Amino acid sequence: MEEEEELSEEEAEVSCFQMGKVCPLKNVAELVLMCAQPGRGFGGNSQTQFNGENYSTQENDFSRGRRGRGGHSEGHDRGFGGGYRGKNEEIFTQATTEDPKESDPSNPDSSIRPKVTYVPPALPEDEDSVFAHYQQGINFDKYDDIIVDLSGTNPLPAILSFAEAALCESLQKNVTKSGYSKPTPVQKHAIPIIFAGRDLMACAQTGSGKTAAFLLPILQQLMADGVAASSFVELQEPEAIIVAPTRELINQIFLEARKFAYGTCVRPVVVYGGVNTGFQLREISKGCNIVCGTPGRLLDVIQRGRIGLTKLRYLVLDEADRMLDMGFEPDMRRLVSMPGMPPKENRQTLLFSATYPQDIQRLAADFLKTDYLFLAVGIVGGACSDVEQTFVQVTKFSKREQLLDFLKTTGNERTMVFVETKRQADFIATFLCQEELPTTSIHGDREQREREQALADFKTGKCPILVATSVAARGLDIPEVQHVVNFDLPKNIDEYVHRIGRTGRCGNIGRAVSFYDPEGDSQLAAALVTILSKAQQEVPPWLEESAFSRGATAFSQANKSFASSDSRKSQQAGCERGQPVPQVAVADDDDWE
Ligand SMILES: Nc1ncnc2c1ncn2[C@@H]1O[C@H](COP(=O)(O)OP(=O)(O)OP(=O)(O)O)[C@@H](O)[C@H]1O
């Protein structure tokens, strides 16, 4: 079976009880659900019962104690996945993930797991829904001015237009219906590289069109080769696998694939945790050329013998740095060593992200052919320049009032509020509802049904405020998100870049406001100063002071997470040669249990 979480609901309850609090996690989520319903508020008591500050303090110690780095159990009794994976979307409460009828009988735990019955609603088939998109913004044309660095042997020239890509008629039609009139820089470069059969590590800022940069050339080549999915065959052998770290993101990539493949013979399918496995297996058996999956569920369906790998031509890792950090790297290694998986010399491996720490770049080379190309559009690891970043100095206890003040100025504008822990997400969402601000929340303790509903309510504007943990930080492309608030700053600068990238997408302008608590956030100061300077934004003097007070090493450490370019260049120059590849620490432990 696929997913393993570290803490059962019962255990959580017991631990809370031991801390002197009775706090079934599920009840907190239910409160938020109630709160999201119009006309249902909370009495003043709930604030004291669910005191976010107290819980997060306690939760930190308690969670760390239970998890630890050693929590990741290799070769554990449920086959794949398992243990602590850092920011792993696929580790949730038991109630959401497992299906006893389908689980491994050798696993004694499996008998107590409730069946996952959730089946997502059928997707609308009409063209308007399939091709619904938002407008590119006023800065879309400025993408052309971004400096591009393509390194590696025998680089390919970029295309300048979709016409040059010579897409087949149906694909070109779908591109036009999607509102794409010209390719973004990452598309201009990645499309010919992928056509040429080269492996690629591509880095481009958030919201600049990386998804289409890999989907379009893959679809084009599958169509040019006349592939068609054979339906109702139990074992499907897809030509492409796309993996991403979170359920909502992989679903979004699937919807993009479905959109571009509209009216063609190519059939994409999606598999992710929290959804009934039987439903997904039936979807696979209807035919599958491209399988989009989160790692645990994907490995599970492969292990069940429902996905064969012998025809695989493309392996895509979206949010590649995340997929290769210590949370998911073991799964990725398992994936590439599955029986039938073509060796890297015989498949095309494509890595995409907006951030690539040097360590991860070096590790990624294990998955790529030696002559892979490295594409850097703009500053590797840089923040999107269309996001105006501001910082507010706060104390831990003034944050809530500051948030309220801020949200009162934004009216109905869509705002994502990032917090550190799942409980904090529930607590803040409840608090905002009490203040009559229509709010919903998304985090790993919510049932998949609730998570999808929360996202839908945010997208439609029914709840224009979404309180989220870092589970929603990467990749999500939600129209008209005008503001991102870092109520709690993340522990890791890359996470910051991804979070603020939920706004200011596709040439639109966005705003990010971050609450900076000098007591808890100073370890991020140097990296924030670097990010702001590289994005040519004003650096508050107090932030600069805070950064310098930590000494020059803080800046050199901060700079280590920004690869100025291809890590092979620094290796060639003799820098850090011979050093072991360190594992990158995963941020926000408390958020990913
Ligand atoms: N050539 C294009 N013309 C117009 N719109 C585009 C083009 N390419 C992509 N888009 C749109 O831009 C938005 C952002 O694209 P996408 O989600 O692929 O960004 P991304 O680079 O993957 O971001 P992230 O790093 O956050 O994952 C999407 O709504 C997408 O449909």
From TrEMBL:
Compositionally skewed regions (Polar residues) per UniProt: 45-60, 559-573
Source organism of this protein record: Hippocampus comes
Top-level enzyme category: hydrolase
Keywords, ordered alphabetically: ATP-binding, Helicase, Hydrolase, Meiosis, Nucleotide-binding
Family according to the record: Belongs to the DEAD box helicase family. DDX4/VASA subfamily.
Catalysed reactions, semicolon-separated: ATP + H2O = ADP + phosphate + H(+)
Residue ranges constituting the Helicase ATP-binding domain according to the UniProt record: 191-374
EC number annotated for this UniProt entry: 3.6.4.13
SUPFAM superfamilies per UniProt: P-loop containing nucleoside triphosphate hydrolases
GO terms under biological process: meiotic cell cycle
Superkingdom of source: Eukaryota
Pfam families to which the protein is assigned, alphabetical: DEAD, Helicase_C
Motif (Q motif) on chain: 160-188
Region: Disordered, residue numbers: 43-116, 559-593
GO MF: ATP binding; hydrolase activity; nucleic acid binding; RNA helicase activity
Alphabetized Gene3D superfamilies for the sequence: P-loop containing nucleotide triphosphate hydrolases (3.40.50.300)
DEAD-box RNA helicase Q domain boundaries: 160-188
Record protein name field: RNA helicase
Domain Helicase C-terminal: residue ranges: 399-547
